[in-house]
């Protein structure tokens, strides 16, 4: 409990910064209560709130370096400018609600005596406190502030809008990337059209942010665009907003092979990929020789979408399992009985920036023998994060489980090892890169299985695994050239598939 009237060991209590002004902006205890409660409930390991809560208060020094908190026995002390301004009875190490209440009281008290903290908006305070709390967890758990969280939610889950993007060019605002079947597409808006006005207001007088905000809005509401195409007179297009999910899939064709580039995994990725595959099959017909699934540079995204993407190609068997402290984090995902590509040859491209959900897909397709992985060792993010929306509209990402591939190894730190490595020094010719595979000298996956079995506890085994195909910058087209050459030789492709098949590390 807060004790008032405290004096500094070497002086008097400073005059409150807000003594003659209005109360500081409101700090919501609910933000800390929901955040701390969620950490206690779902985080991968049980936490010590005595450490987390105190470190959260220490984060105030990011705003005011004179703000300081420490703990002596069962008492938490708070200082500003060297003076003791409050004392609190420390809750138990497992009392998330108690530490949330203490944090709120201490923050409010510090703001009364620190002009810098007093002037900081509440969102800035939440950010520094929760950032400091999250540093005590793992590197993938994080707090995202309101503005960034809103943008990320739109990318993951969609937003109320009409389905287009804008580009400024030569003093004009041009429409780009009209999503197929979106409200803008159905209204006849096309890429290259000039956007003259939004709801009657000229775009020449609007900022980029203004235009984006005006195009977005609650689903079901209307927006009026004034557009011009080529030298034709301007026309007005009333468009009703709908939920729009950005398309993360791009399809192209190279040498009678469908190349499917997936940038990240959001709520529409599996559906968009399915459409792209069906469209490619229809356009190429019997001339189609296979597919390349390009996951290079893909940082991940929604786990359920990764499972759904893998399930598009795998007709039966395990996709992944997850394990954590919370009972709901222990899950097993199995493939359904269909393969949208009907067994056609499939090559997956990965690199050192392929992470999380991208690694789930690559590992599942490799371990099941459904695809050949080409490229370099992937990032090694083998954990699942829950996302909690906080009362201030910020978001809390918390690691709650580890991911295990069908072969039984964890992706954590290990990543996915390509069957055909394109990143070794001095190898930049597709023919040379495939020579070991062609001549039967390729490294057997059983060797990788041995390293994986020890890698969790053996740093030497982990190093050997990661060094087997280390990622480095190289010509991006090299990976695709290798994939296309592999698909051009069915016998060589089948040899690579046989090498890729599951070598179980530990049954789960």
Structural description of this entry:
- With 508 residues, the protein is α+β, with helices and mostly antiparallel strands.
- It is 34% helix and 22% strand.
- It is built from 17 helices and 22 strands.
- The chain has helices at 29-42, 49-58, 96-113, 115-119, 122-134, 146-157, 183-186, 208-215, 269-284, 303-313, 357-367, 430-433, 435-438, 445-455, 459-467, 476-488, 490-500; strands spanning 67-72, 75-80, 83-89, 142-144, 159-161, 165-169, 172-176, 194-198, 201-202, 222-228, 235-240, 242-244, 249-254, 257-262, 290-294, 318-323, 331-334, 346-350, 372-375, 383-389, 395-404, 420-421.
- The chain has a six-stranded mixed sheet with strand order 13-14-15-18-19-22, with helices on both faces.
- Strand 8 (194-198) and strand 9 form a beta hairpin.
- Helix 2 packs across helix 5.
- It is flat, with a radius of gyration of 28 Å.
- Residues 1-12 have low confidence and may be disordered.
């Amino acid at each position: 409990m807060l004790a008032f009237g405290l004096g500094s060991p070497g002086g008097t209590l400073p005059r409150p910064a807000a003594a003659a002004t209005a109360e500081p902006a409101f700090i919501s205890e609910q933000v800390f209560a929901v955040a701390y409660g969620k950490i206690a409930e779902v985080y991968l390991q049980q936490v010590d709130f005595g450490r987390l809560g105190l470190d959260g208060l220490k984060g105030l020094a990011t705003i005011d370096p004179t703000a300081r908190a420490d703990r002596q026995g069962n008492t938490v002390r708070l200082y500003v400018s060297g003076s003791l301004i409050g004392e609190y009875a420390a809750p138990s190490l497992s009392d998330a609600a108690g530490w949330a209440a203490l944090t709120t009281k201490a923050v409010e008290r510090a703001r009364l005596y620190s002009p810098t903290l007093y002037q900081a908006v509440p969102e800035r305070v939440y950010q520094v406190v929760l950032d400091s709390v999250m540093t005590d967890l793992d590197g993938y758990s994080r707090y995202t502030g309101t503005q960034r969280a809103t943008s990320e939610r739109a990318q993951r889950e969609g937003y109320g809008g009409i389905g287009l993007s804008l580009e400024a060019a030569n003093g004009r605002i041009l429409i780009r990337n009209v999503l197929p079947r979106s409200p803008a597409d159905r209204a006849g808006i096309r890429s290259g059209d000039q956007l003259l006005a939004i709801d009657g207001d000229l775009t020449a007088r609007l900022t980029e942010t203004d235009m984006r905000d005006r195009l977005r809005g609650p689903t079901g509401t209307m927006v009026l665009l004034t557009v011009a195409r080529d030298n034709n007179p301007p026309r007005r297009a009333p468009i009703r907003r709908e939920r729009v999910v950005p398309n993360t899939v791009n399809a192209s064709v190279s040498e009678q092979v469908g190349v499917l580039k997936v940038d990240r995994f959001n709520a529409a990725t599996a559906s968009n990929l399915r459409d792209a595959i069906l469209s490619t099959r229809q356009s190429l017909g019997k001339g189609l020789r296979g597919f390349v699934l390009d996951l290079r540079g893909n940082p991940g995204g929604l786990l359920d979408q990764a499972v759904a993407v893998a399930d598009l190609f795998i007709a039966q068997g395990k996709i992944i399992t997850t394990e954590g402290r919370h009972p709901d984090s222990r899950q097993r995902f199995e493939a359904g009985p269909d393969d949208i590509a009907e067994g056609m040859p499939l090559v997956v491209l990965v690199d050192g920036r392929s992470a999380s959900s991208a690694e789930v897909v690559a590992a599942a397709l490799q371990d099941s023998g459904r695809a050949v992985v080409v490229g370099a060792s992937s990032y090694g993010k083998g954990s699942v994060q829950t996302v909690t929306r906080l009362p201030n509209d910020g978001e809390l990402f918390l690691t709650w489980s580890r991911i295990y591939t069908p072969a039984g190894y964890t992706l954590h730190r290990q990543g996915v090892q390509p069957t055909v490595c394109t990143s070794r020094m001095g190898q930049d010719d597709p023919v040379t890169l495939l020579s070991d595979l062609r001549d039967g000298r390729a490294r057997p996956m059983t060797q990788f299985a041995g390293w994986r079995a020890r890698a969790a506890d053996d740093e030497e085994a982990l190093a050997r695994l990661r060094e087997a195909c280390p990622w480095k910058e190289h010509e991006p087209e090299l990976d695709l050239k290798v994939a296309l050459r592999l698909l051009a030789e069915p016998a060589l492709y089948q040899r690579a598939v046989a090498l890729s098949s599951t070598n179980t590390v530990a049954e789960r």
